[in-house]
Amino acid sequence: MLLALDVGNTNVTIGIFEGEHLTRNWRLRTVHEQTADEWGILLRNLFSLSGLDTGQIKGIIVASVVPILDANLALMAERYFHTEAMFVGPGSDTGIRVLYDNPREVGADRVVNAVAAFHKFGGPCIVVDLGTAITFDAVSANGEYLGGVICPGIGISIGGLFAKTARLPMVDFREPEKLIGTNTVGSIQSGLYFGMIGMIDGILERMVETMGAATKAVATGGQAHLIVKHSRFVKTLDEDLTLDGLRLIWDRRRR
Fold this sequence. Notes:
Shape: globular
Strand order of the largest sheet: 6-9-8-7-10-11
Helix content: 25-40%
Radius of gyration: 19 Å
Number of strands: 11
CATH architecture of the largest domain: 2-Layer Sandwich
Number of domains: 2
Distance between the termini: 16 Å
Low-confidence stretches: none
Largest sheet: 6 strands, mixed
Strand content: 15-25%
CATH topology of the largest domain: Nucleotidyltransferase, domain 5
């Protein structure tokens, strides 16, 4: 079995693969102060609750955009799983050529998403990842990572609106009951929801004009399912895209 970890700024997504099949997955909060032992105990508890044996894990692969956690994750892998974790980075053989001016600037999750999207959907394609930031990653017809667009995420927008206004309340992100809100909470939710969809569609429209009409768009991330319903350009939802990309990169290294 393979243990795959996608370590983001807000959440950590954990997946267990048996061959090509994702058999278990969890999404947890990212805690920057978490020690190697805390990671080990947490994972062992998750395994135990799912009836899994940690001894069956033969490999660990990590895509991390939180460098402060990397050393503890590496130590956790050695101490609790008796293996060396593979961290996806600029020197990793991912099978995809990164055309960024400085490839070291590209987050590991963005490259992993590109690998999975090209493998599963072909190119040209665009991955829209709704995380702490909303990222748009472009992959060519030849499987090259072309670059992308980075925007503030949904949580950042909600937090900024609450922090910078005196009377507007904190709200959750959801599809509103109606477009024109008749109360403050409904008005904010409508603005956030349709504003995000409008921004995403506006950027995708320009990217498709640049990349060609055959370009496909796929959404991933914790809140992606809320966007797909009303987006004009994103019709495909793949919540496990990053985990699948990690598995593909692991399999490539094994081969």
